Amino acid sequence: MLTEDKDLDWNKYFRIGGFDIRHATMLKDVTATEGATFRQLTLVHLLALQDPNLLPQLTVNSDMEARISSLNESHVSLVNKTWKFGGDEKGFQLIKYLISHFPTCCITDEEGCPVSWVLLYDYCAMGLLYTAPDYRGRGYAKILISTMATRLHAQGYPVYCFIEEENQLSYRLFKKLGFTEDPSYRAAWYEFNY
């Protein structure tokens, strides 16, 4: 596919994500043949929620329930500056696109400003999970993951995420919420012509 796709311009910057690392040698060979450069950005676990009944039954009081909302375009800069791969124009444009076209879920403070959120990528994986430091340890991430997973499952979508191998905190959180992985599968994100 990579060698036959005439729409792929090997002279320009692009990324490939969720790529099975068992095929990394082939990717390296094709990249060399095309005269391009590439590097691995991150290595990830793929976790999926096969059975939404495994999600813990969280008790959310009415005050908290009223603060569960969705992100909108006015929140793009906030999300961009907190995202590990953001902080630049490319990140801003991607986050704007995701917020505009895909489900999001957030928890706001008393003034209505998001303090914790999760987005959905254009390939349907949950991601960009974040909680502001002053609000950590309150169970916000559990609430957001459970809320988003329940919504996705109810609409017939797969419920999954990619978690960087070094992000053990998120890995343990998703596992505790009933997500499982195939330990033989590893994926990576690569960027080309950086």
UniProtKB/TrEMBL annotation:
Domain N-acetyltransferase stretches: 53-194
Entry keyword Secreted: no
Ribonucleoprotein in keyword set: no
UniProt superkingdom: Eukaryota
Keyword terms: Acyltransferase, Transferase
Any one Gene Ontology cellular component term annotated for this protein: mitochondrion
CDD domains in UniProt: NAT_SF
GO MF annotations in UniProt: glycine N-acyltransferase activity
Broad enzyme group: transferase
EC assignment: 2.3.1.-
Family note: Belongs to the glycine N-acyltransferase family.
Annotated protein name in UniProt: Glycine N-acyltransferase-like protein
Gene source species: Anguilla anguilla (European freshwater eel)
Organismal lineage: Eukaryota, Metazoa, Chordata, Craniata, Vertebrata
